[in-house]
Amino acid sequence: MEWTSSWYKAYIRSLFTSDDYGEKFKVVRGGGYLSFDRRYLMCAHRSHARPGEAGDTGFRCAKNVR
To answer: Sulfatase-modifying factor enzyme-like domain spans which residues (predicted)?
Structure first.
C-alpha cells in the first residue's frame, strides 16, 4: 500500500461528487505484499479486517534524492 502526495479528488470526467474532495485527504493506493484477497486491494474494505487478517498491509516513506 502506498500513501501518495495526491489530493483526493474526482477522476477526470467523473460525475461522482463528494464533500471530501479538496485539500483534506491524500490518496492511498495498492495493497499489501501478500494481498491475495482482493478485499484488501481496496482501502474502503481495510477497516473491516479482523485482527491478523491484513498483517502484511503497511506503508512506505519515500523521498526524492537531491
So the answer is: 2-63
- C-alpha cell recorded at residue 4: 501518495
Q: What is the mean pLDDT of each run of 10 residues along the chain (66 residues)?
A: 83 93 85 60 58 63 80
Q: Which of 8, 36, 12, 39 is nearest to 22 (CA)?
A: 8
Residue 20 CA to residue 5 CA, distance in Å, equals 16
In angstroms, rounded to a whole number, what is the distance separating the alpha carbons of residues 65 and 41?
29
Q: Please enumerate in sequence order all residues whose Cβ is within 8 A of that of 56, keeping only pairs 6 or more positions apart, or say none.
A: 32, 33, 34, 35
* Model confidence pLDDT, tens digit, residues 22-38: 999 988 776 665 665 66
**DSSP state, residue 42:** S
